Amino acid sequence: MVTVYDVTPNKLVKKVAEKLKNLGIAQPLFIGTVKSGPNRSRLPQQKDFWYVRLAALLRNAYVHGNVGVGKLRTHFGGKKIRGVKPEEKRKAGGSIIRKGLQALEAAGLMVKKKKGREISAAGKKLLDAAAKEVAS
Q1: Is residue 69 a contact partner of residue 94, using CB atoms and an 8 Å limit?
Q2: Which CATH architecture has domain 4-129?
Q3: Which of 18, 57, 85, 113 pairs with 131 at a CA distance of 20 to 30 A?
Q4: Widest CA span of the chain, in angstroms?
Q5: Helix axis angle, 49-64 relative to 9-23, nearest 10°?
Q6: What pLDDT is recorded for position 33?
């Protein structure tokens, strides 16, 4: 049986993003007008950025188990270019991640725990089905 661990993450995230778009998860109004973090210089250029980020959040929860906003902010962060000063690591913005986790939870793909969130059985089924499609 093919699982998430057996396929390329980029291909899997694209396939899951397509599936999430078909589920009808609503995109927040602010998505096209904000950067994804202080280390970015521009707005996201992808038209389906929201669904790609949701798919990445879902995959991250599958691979790492219990995840929270702080852990995911660190994962999606990066280097901030500060001109002639040395670069610094910055965390990603928390609002996009928080709203994404809430949307996945409302869709029944994630479950809120006492600390953080875990992927639900429906979320695992969605990711495994997408992994099977990508592998074939």
Answers
A1: yes
A2: Orthogonal Bundle (1.10)
A3: 113
A4: 51
A5: 120
A6: 80
The beta strand positions in the chain, using DSSP E, are: 78-82, 85-90, 110-112, 117-119
For residue 38, which amino acid is it?
P
Distance CA 57, CA 132 (A): 19
Give pLDDT, residue 22. Answer: 92
Mean pLDDT by 10 residues, the chain (136 residues): 92 95 88 83 86 96 94 93 93 93 95 93 95 92
Which of 47, 12, 24, 28 lies closest to 126 in space, CA to CA?
12
Please compute, for residue 107, the number of CA atoms within 13 A of its CA located in the half-sphere on the CB side: 24
Chain centroid, CA 19 distance in Å: 14
* CA nearest to 57, candidates 67, 45, 70, 43: 67
Which pLDDT score, from 0 to 100, does residue 1 have? 84
